[in-house]
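User: Run a structure prediction on this.
Assistant: Running it now.
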Amino acid sequence: MTEHTDHDDLSRAALARRIQLLQDFAEVVRGEPFSYAELVGALRRQDLSLSPSQWSQLVGGGSGTLPPSEVLAGLARVFGVPASFLLEGGALPPALEAMAGAILTLRAHRIQEVADRHLVDLAPNVLADVIAALAPLARIRP
């Protein structure tokens, strides 16, 4: 069993945020989410693989063995960003920075959809307060 530190947890959380950001970026650019099957196919063309559990751990920031750096570099290529963005926590790539407004809009729309679906029975002012409280979660944090 591998021991990990709080720093490892923070690094995993940061990597998860970056991968989630790449997923949102791809959705904004393509107009639809990038599926796991598409991702696996794109990695396979690079002679790389990523299991469903590894993908789940990456996106969720969970514990477990991270895929090799070659796979992370391959993911960066799939999403069209420098490998350093995932491997080293590099700066926000210009393409993502240019789409920041659209990504924030996508995230805010998701928050609104969840609130509308699950909080429909609340009084309108309570629903508005909940949505306002959740809105900061939509920000871009690589």
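The radius of gyration is 17 Å.
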